[in-house]
Amino acid sequence: MGRTSGLGSELKVRVKIFGAPSLALERKELTIELTENATTEDLLKSLPVKDKDYLYVVRAGIRLDSGAKINDGDEILIVPPIAGG
Amino acid sequence: MIEPITVDVEKTKWVGKSIPRKDGRGKVTGETKFFSDMTLPNMLYAKVARSKYPHANIRRVNIEKAKEVPGVVTALTHKDVPGLNGFGILLPDQPVLCFDKVRYLGDAIAVVAAESLEAATKAVEAVEVEYEPLPVVTDPIEAMKPDAPKIHEKGNILRHATVGVGNIDRAFREAAIIVENTYRTGRQMHMYLETEAGIATLDEEGRLVLYSGGQSPYRDQMQISRALGIKPEEIRVISTPVGGAFGGKEENTVQIHLAMLALKTKRPVKMVWTREESGVTGMKRHPMIVTMKTAADQHGKITANQVRIVADTGAYASLGPTVLDVAVENSCGPYRIPNVDIDAYSVYTNNGVAGAFRGFGAPQVNFAIESNIDIIAEKLGLDRLEIRKANVVREGDVGLFGYKILGSVGIYETLQRAERSNLWKNRDAYKSKTSSPWSRRGIAVTTAVKGFGFGALPDFAAASIQITPTGKFVVGISCPEIGQGGITAYSQIAAEALNCDISDIYLASADSDLSPDSGTSSSSMGLVRGGNAILTAAPKMREILFATASKIIGEPRADLVLGQSLISSEHDPKKLVTYVDIAQYLHSKGEETKVVAGFEVPRVDKPVEGSLEIPHLSYMYATAIALVEVDTFTGGTKVLQFYLSPDSGRIINPQSYTGQCEGAIVQGLGFALTEETQIENGQIRTNNFTTYIIPTICDVPEIQVEPVETHDMFTPLGAKGLGEIGIVPVGSVVANAIYDATGARLFTLPATPERVHQAIKEKEGTSRDKSKS
């Protein structure tokens, strides 16, 4: 799982996945490696989940834009949009 | 990491004070313009062609005649949906525009945009649809049978949840008393003042802008983007002000249709559902059939509860799966019950669509558990309030499903407060007076619980704060103002955290371009989400203020102190800079003036087996007392007095707090006494105020709200949710008070005059039979 290019330094990111995407992956938490300057799009590309355009990438309570940079050591939530009561 | 600000609620200037609602004057005087009031130049009017059958295959759709109606600019069908032809927050199983079949009367088949509303109305009437009617499924119990006509290909059961704890069989064997009954509740409509409405337009760069009263601009943005196949950031959604929502505007209503029409015509397009359309098409509260078998020992200690729930979710999923979870979670009330066996279904029928509604599954099951508790108390000769005191959860208890309740627990204290209330202490005196010889009065007390937020589901909220060139602050929060007082409460919290006057706070509210994603105004959680996000962002803004002040004053950061809209030297108070000075410095130097921060709502790592969002870590609680008078000739019931003691944590604005409770109680009276959407063979008979009866000002009793303030650990303010808890006990307390008045037990809500009259007749019949024997 994850993506390593062999070029530049690597980022380790802890990813927690909720809802339907976690069912597809059959796991709810994983650590992935990304190359330096990776963005949320790179992160989503590295996950074999569907409907990536509609998943929220959340760090420290903030939903990240599609081009936002991922940092080494980040804890990221992958969340399908949820509402309810 | 910068820690959130913790507000000392004992020493606040704004938090905890009855600050007048910032949006109050405009709403009371009618000056506030809702989206249904709005017009734009060159605007078109949109209407939806809806299904005339509750269940049918579609053979053919022809929109040619609709297009020929003078004034019509465009007409669209399913072929024009560029992305996913489906919506639904949890499960997108509802077509944007139907193509193969319709599953309820309001299903959308085509949309038109025209130069006038009259032309649009004529055009939808000209849409030709060839149907092949299918058997209509209206009874959820029948719908569950294997040979029932299938509404969806996968079958009629949307969700089946089972939760078990302890040994239910042994508990029933050892019980001193077992009570088993089946309860039914009605299909309540939201009946907001403003029906579902909005305008979509393109800005000068051709980007889609949607003005629509929803409960989360970002959730609406996602659903539009999915249906239109465009990136979310290509859509701007503005969702405030909203003329009432109560859960009914959490789901997509007008948004996707408007977006399609605006993109097609390149002109502004407006759609406002008529009241009848809202009645037929809009969300409803799930009617539930709850069979509950409750056991207790001889002292009234509840030892077991077996619950069977069938929820009628109508034609599509919407939020049905999570409504069912909340019903499961609340079906044992706020009580310590060691043995529990819950089996619950959410079932598709052709009865409209049920979804989120204030209380979210809790009022329905509360009616069942609170009725069974009263029956047990009576059979054991126990006081109705004492039996509840003996069974409610306390601070630090392990909750129903084996999880320790981490939030504050004030339910016992609300019962104590209720016990000391004038209404309860003098109940015999209150009951002794009646307005006619054939009227009877009764009083009851019931309790309520409901989690706030999404429980075990992930939830997060962000806020932005920007200092303006004039030293004021713009706070970005995307939770819409739906009437709950959010704008004022957020301003109070921001003013407190930034030590400025509340008039210096402006809200950039519910605009996907101006406010970060703060989640939804739902699940009684808007204040906690937005308020916590502000308290997380405020320290970052303070850091900017102090760093800038340090540069201007020329003293180290550590030697500076925060004053009212200024920062000064600790040693020489005359050396100071105001927020205006700081703002001018920042803007003149082109330095950062805006911060964004967010927080994740705490949750359990793993939900209860078989559930989606159970458990919540923290809960709202309440105790309610109602005094009713029943006309025994007609069965008409009037609620004369209502007392509510809620535990919603710390109070941010006492005036808004009371208003929220009063609103919830009155809406609950509709659920308890009158409101029931009548559907016969899929046809809705009650789609306007003439046939669907909501409480008026004449029905509003004398209301007393007496809060118990606890401090919840999940927020620096200690505030919990509030919006829903007031409605949860209303049905049960009114039904139990009717029993206290007449001896007639209601097993179905609403307690309409016909049902009360029938129950009295049956009870009198039973009494006569007993006296004969």
Oligomer: heterodimer
> Biggest chain pair contact, residues each?
A-B, 21 and 44 residues
CATH architectural name of chain A? Roll
Level of helix content of chain A? 10-25%
How do the helices and strands follow one another from N- to C-terminus of chain A? EHEHEEE
- Gap from first CA to last CA of chain A: 35 Å
* Name of the CATH first level of the domain at 9-32 and 460-600 in chain B: Alpha Beta
Shape of chain B: globular
CATH superfamily of the domain at 9-32 and 460-600 in chain B: Aldehyde oxidase/xanthine dehydrogenase, molybdopterin binding domain
Q: What is the structural class of chain B?
A: alpha+beta
Low-pLDDT residue spans of chain B? none
Task: Describe the overall structure.
The complex is a heterodimer of chains A (85) and B (773). With 85 residues, chain A is α+β, with helices and mostly antiparallel strands. Chain A has one domain: Ubiquitin-like (UB roll) (Roll), CATH 3.10.20.30. Chain A contains 2 helices and 5 strands. The longest helix of chain A is centred in the N-terminal third of the chain and has 6 residues, at 20-25. Residues 1-6 of chain A have low confidence and may be disordered. In chain B, α9 links the parallel β15 (302-314) and β16. Chain B is built from 20 helices and 30 strands. In chain B, α15 (486-498) packs parallel to α16. Chain B has a domain at 9-32 and 460-600: 2-Layer Sandwich (Aldehyde Oxidoreductase, domain 4), CATH 3.30.365. Chains A and B meet through β4 of A and α6, α9, β19 and β25 of B.
Short synopsis of the structure:
The complex is a heterodimer of chains A (85) and B (773). With 85 residues, chain A is α+β, with helices and mostly antiparallel strands. Helices cover 14% and strands 31% of the residues of chain A.
